[in-house]
């Protein structure tokens, strides 16, 4: 399993940089929480990683392969998956059909159903009839079924109650423990930091903290300073 390495990444949108000189390494089996205030550049960073937008400067490597100029499709072939902010299910398809669309193998569908027993019960229901939380399980399940080496998850809690969201987090942990490197963007900062080993805090496009997640939970003042960009 290889690592994903970002160096000096700068992304420009409109008038100026929305991501400036960001460095980050994602390692197999580890969850990195990417947190920061609204407009900090979290979504832009994920988009630059998966190839939705091109960076102005810097480099992205998977192992020894430079993927900075690779297309989205080429990155996906190398194991990159991106659950975008507000991503929806295919409402008219059943749960099983949704999962089969991305599944690497038939067994991958069974693994997702084992991870989410709620979906097993609704496997033949059109996805449109599921609750919001169940639909987010389908969205996550579709990403898991593709068996990515690198999974970027943007705000999967959006529109969900914290109780529903906390149901999704153990599945992310379990998926990471099978070997995936995960970059988790979350508005529920403390919940994200608790499941993560590593943390990256960005504020106004700049890295204000990088390192272990636990110290940010132990010292909320450090997290607060990083949010304000004063650390
Ligand atoms: N398509 C775009 N064109 C121009 N500017 C954009 C575009 N998308 C985002 N921006 C700007 O880039 C900056 C970073 O936005 P981004 O969406 O990456 O932040 P974020 O950390 O994901 O915020 P949120 O927590 O609200 O999701 C913001 O100033 C935003 O206005
Ligand atoms: Mg965002």
What labels would you give this structure?
binds magnesium ion; alpha/beta; binds adenosine-5'-triphosphate; 6-stranded mixed beta sheet; Rossmann fold; 26% strand
Provide structural commentary.
The protein has 231 residues and is α/β, with parallel strands linked by helices. It has one domain: P-loop containing nucleotide triphosphate hydrolases (Rossmann fold), CATH 3.40.50. The protein is 39% helix and 26% strand. It has ten helices and ten strands. It has helices spanning 42-50, 72-77, 95-102, 106-115, 117-121, 132-145, 162-177, 189-195, 214-218, 220-228, and strands spanning 4-13, 16-26, 31-35, 57-62, 65-66, 80-83, 150-154, 181-185, 198-203, 206-212. A six-stranded mixed beta sheet has the order 6-7-8-3-9-10, with helices on both faces. A four-stranded antiparallel beta sheet has the order 2-1-4-5, with helices on one face. The radius of gyration is 17 Å and the shape is globular. The protein starts with a strand and ends with a helix. The structure holds adenosine-5'-triphosphate and magnesium ion. Magnesium ion (MG) binds at residues 42-43, 85. Magnesium ion is lined by residues 42-43, 85.
Task: Give the structure's gist in a few sentences.
This protein is α/β, with parallel strands linked by helices.
């Amino acid at each position: 399993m290889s690592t994903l390495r970002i160096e000096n990444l700068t992304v420009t949108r409109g008038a100026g940089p929305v991501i400036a000189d960001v460095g980050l390494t994602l390692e197999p089996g580890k969850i990195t929480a990417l947190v920061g205030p609204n407009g900090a550049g979290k979504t832009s960073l994920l988009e630059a990683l998966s190839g939705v937008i091109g960076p102005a400067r810097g480099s992205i490597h998977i192992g020894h392969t430079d993927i900075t100029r690779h297309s989205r499709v080429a990155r996906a072939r190398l194991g990159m998956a991106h659950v975008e902010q507000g991503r929806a299910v295919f409402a008219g398809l059943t749960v099983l059909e949704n999962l089969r669309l991305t599944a690497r193998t038939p067994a991958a569908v069974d693994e997702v159903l084992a991870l989410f027993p709620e979906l097993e019960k609704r496997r033949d229901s059109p996805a449109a009839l599921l609750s919001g939380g169940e639909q987010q399980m389908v969205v996550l399940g579709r990403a898991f079924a593709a068996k990515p080496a690198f999974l970027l998850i943007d705000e999967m809690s959006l529109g969900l109650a914290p109780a529903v969201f906390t149901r999704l987090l153990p599945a992310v942990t379990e998926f990471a423990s099978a070997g995936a490197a995960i970059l988790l963007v979350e508005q529920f900062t403390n919940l994200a930091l608790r499941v993560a080993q590593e943390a990256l805090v960005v504020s106004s496009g700049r890295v204000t903290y990088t390192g272990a997640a636990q110290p940010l939970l132990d010292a909320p003042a450090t997290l607060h300073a990083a949010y304000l960009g004063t650390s």
